[in-house]
Amino acid sequence: MFTSAIVKTPCKNMVKGITTANLGHPDYELALKQHKNYIQVLEQCGLKVIVLKPDENFPDSTFIEDTCLVTPRCAIITNPGAASRENETISVGRTVKELGVQVEYIQNPGTLDAGDIMMVNDHYFTGISERTNIDGASQLNNILKKYNLTSSTIKLEKILHLKTGISYLENNNLLAVGEFLTKPELKGFNILEVDKEESYAANSVWINGNVLVPKESPETIKMIENAGYKVIEVGVSEFKKLDGGLSCLSLRF
Ligand code: CIR
Prior knowledge:
253 residues, alpha/beta, L-arginine/glycine Amidinotransferase, Chain A, three-stranded mixed beta sheet, 6 helices, 24% strand, globular, binds citrulline
């Protein structure tokens, strides 16, 4: 069960965010509307939501998931792998300290985006990607060990972040697409295969029995409903234009 979330309002400079999507610039007003709706959905799932102010210095800062991993025993401030995102961690660090949790840090030369971390009970799968290096993953592993938590790595081939291509829906159910359908590290899961045409929906979010799924993913929605979950469709088209998915927009704990 999750009780809380932290989100960060998108800034006007989000239009300058990093992207490979080729879907054009985001519409800022629509992004704000979608972000407000996202917050309402988190609240509807029973979470208390802390909303951080926008920061024009960091175009990608609404993708707050990458800056911190909150576990039930500690919060780990990451060291984002993209140069323009390095200092995004400052404001989230302040916020988690105020929550009174134990805070740990990933440091150079280690880099790590928490979009590359997937929590499965007490275990944390870590994607080795263009953003997360072996040193970052090994620092994370050492920190988690101190708290009796474990981790293991999965090498990414094409996909930006681990959770761009897989999402854990609890009860051993794993939503997956593309390169993740055949990874030996994931073979113990009951894999729900997302069609290539809807690959963006592989980044869906389980919250307290509900699954948030991006709008316009009819086949994935049907599949998740058939697996017994309540699906909540969420419009995030403007964030998709910046390679960001549903999970990237919040820290959930
Ligand atoms: C970036 O490239 O860093 C942002 N434009 C998108 C980050 C998406 N975050 C995520 O998948 N966890």
